[in-house]
Write a structure and sequence with these properties.
five-stranded mixed beta sheet, 16 strands, alpha/beta
């Protein structure tokens, strides 16, 4: 496929527009749209809130006449009735001439149907322009649609010598204020924040996104509590929003107590693949696209060992805590260096005096 310079320009703009829905459109994908005539942009749109108009419709609503136009969309337009009517119908009714799509719908049940419907209506369709960049917009939606699992990020903070707390547990604060604010942006961009009952008890954590300068759709808070020992007096129950607890233990008395404070408790029988089952359940039942894990060295290490982490986000502070301090992760001991887990560095950013390192696994 041969693309012109203006094609890259307009699709790049659509990708930037899609990012505007990063904190508000979950569980739907982030999508941007640009409508052009004679090489000039006549309308733009993005998907802002789930249940409301999609990017294409928002763009069409911004122009008086989209006939004979070329439309650039980051994702194949939907062809089925979901929370809103099909976007392909809106494009067809607007008499657009051509639709250029960055990536096809990752849902194998509907992938290609939007393209087919446009072509059957006589609209020229091209796809694949800046596809890699478009996929990066929605790693969780893509993974949920193709593998029925969410995309999992594990967030950690450490000293320069790889330690997370002193031997006595003192850890506030290793990272800078700017890093902590950046974590709230990560939370806001996630479908769910997942932690353990041990972390909730030790930190009395709220696990929500706060103190940000933009509107946020609060993530679901997910607690791993195999023995159902969480207190109904925990602070997170006093904060608005959904709380889901996953447990292996059936206890009717505790269930009633937790139901009264608004928690949803999900029982999954114990098995070797129990944690994998939790993530699959989150994707199937709750449409969770992206999970941010905030937990200790043991649980985070167990997720990595189980192959359940897609991305590590590490905030490294310019301090030294010494070899008696607590380690970043607890992993199985290795006998040979070649057994070491290899990571791919995908991003480096500075947060005040800290460095944020992002790795794919």
């Amino acid at each position: 496929m041969t693309w012109q310079a203006h094609d890259y320009q307009f699709m790049s703009r659509a990708i930037q527009l899609a990012k505007r829905g990063r904190y508000t459109c979950d569980p739907n994908p982030r999508v941007g749209c640009v409508i052009c005539k004679e090489g000039q942009v006549i309308a733009e749109g993005w998907h802002a809130v789930s249940g409301e108009a999609h990017a294409e419709v928002n763009a069409l609503n911004q122009c008086d006449d989209a006939s004979d136009s070329t439309v650039y969309i980051t994702l194949e337009p939907c062809s089925h009735h979901g929370r809103t009517p099909p976007c392909v119908d809106a494009l067809i009714n607007a008499n657009v001439k051509e639709v250029i799509i960055a990536m096809s719908d990752p849902n194998p049940l509907v992938s290609g149907s939007g393209i087919n419907k446009l072509e059957e209506a006589g609209i020229k369709v091209k796809q694949g322009l800046l596809e890699v960049e478009a996929i990066k917009l929605n790693p969780g939606f893509v993974k949920r649609m193709t593998l029925v699992k969410p995309y999992v990020r594990c967030k950690l903070a450490m000293s320069l010598d790889g330690r997370t707390a002193l031997a006595n547990g003192d850890s506030q604060w290793i990272s800078s204020e700017q890093s902590r604010k950046d974590v709230h942006r990560l939370r806001a961009a996630s479908s769910a924040i997942l932690s353990t009952v041990e972390t909730v008890i030790s930190d009395d954590a709220s696990l929500n996104a706060r103190d940000l300068e933009f509107d946020v759709k609060q993530p679901v808070r997910v607690i791993i509590d195999r023995q159902l020992g969480i207190s109904s007096q925990a602070k997170l129950f006093s904060i608005a929003g959904k709380v889901i607890i996953y447990t292996e233990k059936e206890n009717d008395e505790r269930l009633n107590e937790l139901y009264k404070v608004g928690a949803e408790v999900i029982f999954i029988p114990a098995s070797e693949s129990w944690l994998a089952g939790v993530f699959t359940h989150l994707a199937k039942k709750y449409e969770i696209n992206e999970v941010l894990v905030e937990a200790g060295a043991t649980f985070s290490g167990s997720l990595i060992e189980a192959g359940l982490v897609d991305e590590l986000v590490i905030y490294m502070a310019p301090i030294l805590l010494g070899d008696t301090a607590q380690a970043l992760l607890k992993l199985e001991p290795l006998n040979k260096l070649k057994q070491a887990k290899k990571l791919n560095l995908i991003d480096v950013r500075q947060c005040a005096s800290d460095i944020r390192l992002t790795y794919s696994l």
